[in-house]
Amino acid sequence: METVLDLASRNHLKARIQAVLALSEQLTAPLIYADVGALWGVDSPLLKMLRDQQRMKIIGFEIDPAECERLKAISPNDTYLAFGVGDVDAMRPFYVTAFAANSSFLEPDLDALAGLPHRDIFRVVSTGTAPMRRFDTLIATGTVPVPTFLKIDAQGFEYNVLRGFGAELQNVLGIRLETQLRSLYKGQALFHDIYELLKSNGFMLRDVRITYPFEYEVVELEVFFSRDPRHVAGGNSSRPLRIWELIHDIPSGRTIGLENGRVNWLTLPI
């Protein structure tokens, strides 16, 4: 039997779908969604819907050649590339872990995971090299277009991916990424480093979600950054940004209104 919460959730998703479809009908060109660390493919039904409606192009990067071929087979209209994205154009050491999703260009810090059951799934089972490309190089050579939206799940390498955009980062509207509050990989940048980098490039933090705790401790976060909606209102970026907010269910902003000595909470439109 469907509960009240189930019904509310279904109706909320339906409203988001209708809003995204209405907004996307007015686009002059498909949106570009770059998925760095595309293991298992995109996870949003709204992304898939926009892709199927030919209003979005998905470009995924997945180092594992077998997984990359699997993604191509199940999503033939998307583009999947079997190399990594980072801050250099070169071959780089790559660490394959016992749980494939934890593999990274950075070596796992097993000492930091001591005493946790998670430690074994970060254990390195093989080390090799993998090709890495800067995103601004890929754009300059015409390999990929400039992304409208960016998703990064690079196991501690997110900061390096962002650095590899160079000046092209200014053309991105919304970013979703996974980050950590303490090191799980040797030499990795943490949430505060990413926050400062994106803030200095004109992004604001829009939402923070806990992925899952390491026992009792919150270690990993999924965070969402975007351009300031007030700065893009009425321009060519306004509609795509609203679509990004709806895709990721970003909550509306809130502020206060002062009238006749009273303080009222006001909800801002997304």
UniProtKB/TrEMBL annotation:
Molecular function terms from GO: O-methyltransferase activity
Keyword annotations from UniProtKB, A to Z: Methyltransferase, Transferase
Biological process according to GO: methylation
Domain Methyltransferase FkbM residue range list: 35-203
Family matches, as PANTHER family: NODULATION PROTEIN, SLL1456 PROTEIN-RELATED
Designated name of the protein: Methyltransferase FkbM family
Organism: Chthoniobacter flavus Ellin428
